[in-house]
Design a protein that fits this description.
three-stranded antiparallel beta sheet, about 280 residues, mainly alpha, about 5% strand
Length: about 280
Amino acid sequence: MATQQPPRRPTPPLLTEHITRILATIDASSTHGQSLTEIRDRALVLLAFTSAMRASELAALDIDDLQAHTGGLIIRVRSPHPVQAHAKTFITIPWADHHELCPVHALETWLIRLRDQLADQDPTGSAAADDVAAADHFAALRADRRTDPKSRYMLEARRSLIAGMHGAVLRAILHNGRVGSTMVVDPHRARMARLAVTKTITARARTAELQAPDPTGRYYSAHSTRAGFAIQASANGASGRDIMRHGRWTSLEVAREYIGNAEPFQHSAASRLGL
């Protein structure tokens, strides 16, 4: 007789209110959220929540997978597993209504800081060799979006930023304050590992003193942002089909854990057969 498996305890979701609290805690630090680690972690938390990416997908994300658009960012999501490396999809991350909650702004702010840090670490590298036009572009990007971020000029600046960089989006930050560089002997050490992504989100939730709904169950992790995306989007009126497409869920049963049983059938063509 087969041993009955204990029921799976779902990961508690991180919803918008929780994400807001995490970001407020980062901003309330002694460095007002401006340290290298804080800028990276802000981008990580917002990207994890709005993209519904898995920790492995976040760790595998490269700057070459980003495309600036007037509406925000287009991101190519690739499987980190070699046997599925050909599998990829594209998702869109729009500008947020609130500047401090905007994943596009947070991610590009991190890339600017990363670019500056790499230039300091390697003054002879390509990151330090700007032409005049590029220098003007990056000056505009660093000016806290004083120019309309959706303007054609800013789009060119954002595209220049992405085009001039390569390697992992989320980098390891070493004890000496240096960021991981793809120019080191082992470039894989430059990239945040999947476990590091999860630990960072868990640590940020703890720092914000968030209490998991079930204190005897699992605590917040990288999967909490993915689950939270589905629940929050559904509560705000997004269709099950759109949620499943964005989160790349292929199993309706798995999606139902987050968005409920009835909603996915709301737009069923079979309901229009007149039966």
